[in-house]
């Protein structure tokens, strides 16, 4: 199933790459300016969902544009055909495809593919995490003043809330950035380019593959109370594990302010 997911991600990536290179102007197909959907999200989704339906017709699929296709199965594919649509439309190469697979309540596979960066992150439960077939692991940094944090508000319309987190965390860390693709942001934690990713109100398709990548790379994923995370929880922190508790304190201080 992993090989097949990689194949679909690469196929969809080729289409996104062609669109990215050729595009002069990309139309937002959605009426809501904050809810970007381009024809490329839809084309990519068609390839991935079509592929899953063909090979695994009895599996459930949860996808950003198509919603939930519920077959009552134990397996659910969780797909973001274009994560970072805002970047894509602005010719920023930080966009990706995210494909995860859940068996019952457990994530068992995750693929994040960033076609312009030519980076393919892949993991399976219990088998470690890989970037372009090389093993990756979270960073060993445990000093907060040496840490780089990635962060975004997800689909939170209450921007003040995520700004509070930024205000509380930013003074104590080396750097804090918003990359514009949750899947890439989590993959960066998995490969040690950032110490943590802090996000509010994120959708399951944006984060599912990234979450299992971070766990398999030796990191930690929890909600803001430090409790076990699951796909129904949209506020979360993914970290290298070493700074997790310290960041949780800051997050909760920030939210109180
Ligand atoms: C996007 C995320 C991004 C987040 C946006 C949005 P999309 O996903 O990955 O980091 O800030 O709110 O959810 O919509 O491009 O798939």
Mean pLDDT: 94
Indicate the overall shape. globular
Strand order of the largest sheet: 2-1-3-4-5-6-7-8
CATH superfamily of the largest domain: Fructose-1,6-Bisphosphatase, subunit A, domain 1
Q: For the record, give the distance between the C-alpha atoms at the N and C termini, rounded to a whole number.
A: 46 Å
Helix and strand content put the structural class at alpha+beta
Q: Into how many domains do the coordinates divide? A: 2
CATH topology of the largest domain: Fructose-1,6-Bisphosphatase, Chain A, domain 1
Radius of gyration: 17 Å
Second CATH tier, the architecture of the largest domain: 2-Layer Sandwich
The count of strands amounts to: 13
Structure summary:
The protein has two domains: 2-136, Fructose-1,6-Bisphosphatase, subunit A, domain 1 (Fructose-1,6-Bisphosphatase, Chain A, domain 1, 2-Layer Sandwich); 144-256, 3-Layer(aba) Sandwich (D-Maltodextrin-Binding Protein, domain 2), CATH 3.40.190.80. 35% of the residues lie in helices and 25% in strands.
Structure description:
There is one protein chain. This protein starts with a helix and ends with a helix. It has an eight-stranded mixed β-sheet, with helices on both faces. It has two domains: 2-136, Fructose-1,6-Bisphosphatase, subunit A, domain 1 (Fructose-1,6-Bisphosphatase, Chain A, domain 1, 2-Layer Sandwich), CATH 3.30.540.10; 144-256, D-Maltodextrin-Binding Protein, domain 2. The protein contains seven helices and 13 strands. The protein is of the alpha+beta class and 257 residues long. L-MYO-inositol-1-phosphate (LIP) is lined by residues 64, 80, 83-86, 152, 154-155, 180-182, 203, 206.
């Amino acid at each position: 199933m992993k090989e097949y997911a990689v194949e679909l991600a690469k196929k969809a990536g080729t289409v996104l790459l062609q669109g990215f290179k050729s595009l002069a102007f990309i139309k937002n197909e959605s009426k809501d300016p904050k809810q970007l959907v381009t024809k490329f999200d839809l084309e990519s989704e068609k390839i991935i969902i079509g592929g899953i339906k063909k090979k695994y017709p009895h599996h459930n699929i949860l996808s950003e544009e198509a919603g939930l296709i519920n077959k009552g199965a134990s397996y659910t594919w969780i797909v973001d055909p274009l994560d970072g649509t805002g970047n894509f439309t602005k010719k920023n190469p930080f966009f990706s495809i995210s494909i995860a697979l859940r068996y019952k309540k457990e994530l068992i596979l995750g693929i994040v593919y960033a076609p312009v960066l030519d980076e393919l992150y892949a993991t399976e439960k219990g088998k470690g995490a890989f970037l372009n077939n090389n093993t990756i692991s979270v960073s060993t940094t445990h000093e907060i003043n040496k840490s780089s944090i990635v962060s975004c508000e997800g689909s939170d319309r209450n921007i003040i809330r995520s700004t509070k987190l930024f205000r509380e965390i930013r003074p104590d860390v080396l750097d804090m950035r918003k990359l514009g693709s949750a899947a890439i942001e989590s993959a960066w934690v998995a490969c040690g380019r950032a110490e943590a990713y802090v996000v509010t109100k994120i959708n399951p398709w944006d984060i599912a593959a990234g979450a299992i990548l971070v766990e398999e790379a030796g990191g930690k994923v929890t909600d803001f109370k430090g409790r076990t995370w699951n796909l129904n929880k949209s506020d979360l922190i993914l970290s290298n594990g070493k700074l997790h508790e310290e960041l949780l304190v800051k997050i909760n201080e920030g939210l109180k302010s």
